[in-house]
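Agenda item 2: N15 complex prediction
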Amino acid sequence: MAAEPGRVLKPCNGAGGPHITSAVKPRVAGLPVKERTSTQSAEPGRVLKTSESSEDSDLTPTAKPGMEEEHASAKPREPTVTGQKWSLQDFDIGRPLGKGKFGNVYLAREKSTKYVVALKVLFKSQLQKAGVEHQLRREVEIQSHLRHPHILRLFGYFHDKTRVYLILEYAPKGELYKELTKNTRFEEKRAVVYINQLASALQYCHSKKVIHRDIKPENLLLGHTGDLKIADFGWSVHAPSSRRTTLCGTLDYLPPEMIEGSLHDEKVDLWSLGVLCYEFLVGKPPFEAASHEETYRRITRVDLRFPSYVSNSARSLISMLLKHDPNQRISLDKVLEHPWIKDNLNPTTS
Ligand code: N15
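Presented output:
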């Protein structure tokens, strides 16, 4: 089944993305809107109930505390408990952690608890111009409901006249892709630790019918013990989906069914896991090529080649993930049982 042409999920990352006309009315101001009774009454830190029935539904205006359960002391306070809303005043702002198309991420500390977070600042004008408010709201909706040790937490959000702020978990060891660049490639034992953590995070996502679709090293951060955190849900949707991506930016991590515009489901993440596994071990993604067209060809043909140093056991797992037919791909359960994982996993690091 072909995806509907022209349905754009996300603007191109990086420069030169197309202008996207939003199908939704611009209402970034209340983002994510919930029981807005007055024009600026979005409730910081409170999030929306995830609708699993429709990948593209409007957000159900069901209030849910942004930070309940597990946290006692160290986390930022629960706005719905105190009745207070977050504002910039609540934070000391530190160094920039990263720059993005719509704004930057800063190290920040919540004043009353001294809890350190990553504060992402997005400019409403830019979000509006690109027509991605709806996208952002969906991301917030999805991510704020996910609780997993290997998924970066979204603690809450607030906004002012010009900006939207996302209160995100701070990952002290920074970007995984920098580690990969620094090391060129990872030893198999280290790759196993990451793949194991990733597989368990994806298992959790899939149990919630969330497919990620954009797992690549740039979207992975490292916690203070060096544990992996999936940070970006920019393309996540509820399965199954025929959502089409704009095919700009790198194709390297996209499975055949996505670049071919077919209906896809959570099995896209199995493919990405295979690509990532390869990249961890080799230092570059498997279908890398000089041109978009060539990468496309290599992906659709599953033109997979391994350098001699990759173990047979790793090749076995990667080959079972990188199957053209999504239904032939090894399941996450079986990934976690695969000898390459089991035999290389240090019991203390799982
Ligand atoms: C729409 C919303 C729900 C999506 C939420 N997720 C994001 O916005 C994805 N995102 C995560 N965008 C930026 C970040 C981000 C979070 C970027 C960097 C960090 C972060 N947490 N911690 C960092 C971080 N820690 C670092 C340590 C050393 C060097 C750089 C670091 N960056």
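Discussion summary: Residues 188-207 form the longest helix (20 residues).
Owner for follow-up: CH.
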